[in-house]
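S1.2 Input.
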Amino acid sequence: MSADSINNTMHEPTSQNAQSDPVCVLIGHSIEAITSAVVLASLGQRVHLYADMDLLTQQIQQYSFEHHLQALWQMYAQQQIIISQALPDSPDTLIQHYETTSSASNDIDGITLQVKNIVTLYWLFLDSIKPVWTEASWITAFNHSHQQTQPIVMSGIEKLGTVSALAERLQRAWVYYIPFVFLQDGDAYSSMLNPSLWLLGEKTADSSQHLDVLKPLIEHARAAHHADIATIEFARSSIMAMLATRVSFMNEMSRLADSQQVDISQVSRIMGLDERVGSSYLQAGWGFGGNTLPTELAKLQQSSQTHSLDMPLLQSIMHINEDQKELIFRKFWQYFDGFIDNKTVMIWGGSYKAGSGRTAGSAIHPLLALLWSYNIRTLVYSDKAQNELAAIYTQQPLLELVDHPYHQLDSAQAILIISWSPRDQLDIAKIHQYAMPVFDAQNIFTRSQIDSLVGDYMGIGRSK
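S1.3 Output.
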């Protein structure tokens, strides 16, 4: 989407048939802010989104793989149901804009009506506003506001206790915290419209009725819980740390499985049968990436340091995850007994998870760096992440982005898999034509596919 499609002019929408014009005011340029704007618009709300317009445009372009979200964003922007505007340097300017009554003339009978935007809620995405507004400035601006009844919602990943402290500094009762524990990359719109878990932190207990515009989301959630903001912050961090722990535990067990000739994928399925364990986040692979889990662990580490607490388990999780990203390269190196200079390899996938186009924290980056250090030519097929990889590695002659996973296989000596959607069928027959070794960092191959391969197979905690 081009910058031209984003309306970055300060608008004062007026209605000649009504004396008030309700609007949700969102402040932020993150994918969470964009998704929230689209979901609110889908629920019949009018949205004013304030952001750094360059960063907003960049974010929309980076999430081009979110096709449903993109189409709705474009439609609502054209219909001016969502109006994007540059975030003013001063929070006072924004707040005063909605507290000033504007006039609109009725050309039919000459009567002048007083029309005002009635703010139904302010939603602040904390990561986005930090570079522009200081905490002191926006808290002071809201505290000096003449209208103290509008709810303020905050979202973002911060050190434990940060959001609850901000809420206490706001001199109003209806302050809330919503962590995006439900948002799924590649399916952002649907995952917010029907959240798996809706957590709501309340400054004032049992006050969710003041968030009427969000009531449909709460009702559609598969699970929901309200508590004080500090508790919800801690729950958010604990959930994410537990997911990271499960991933790192399975990756550590995968190394033992390698030594025992046991298939860790079968073990994962067996573990999932035990209802005390459950099946989610038990898949061994190259680790976890993206923004949420790494950011969460970093903030949790900061929180522990602030209180002078040692968290050795947290340190181990982070260490295992970083080391795991290089494991598939070590398997590749060992397979060829170190004679890997000047080879050509095919890499499938570059995103941090199947279905996403983002490569933040992906194993593709350390893998490429290690391969290039041996002057290895890398053919990379990554349909959703291709644009991001091209932008990151503009001057790398050893990188060639290809449009099809099976093109140029005849010039490669190995296939390395980082992310592959389970919805995409593997063409085993084409792989058979070249009988080359496969290094599967995502464990995407089924056992029957592994057994049928002509060439060798090395996965994470499983092999042929």
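S1.4 Remarks. The chain is about 40% helix and 15% strand.
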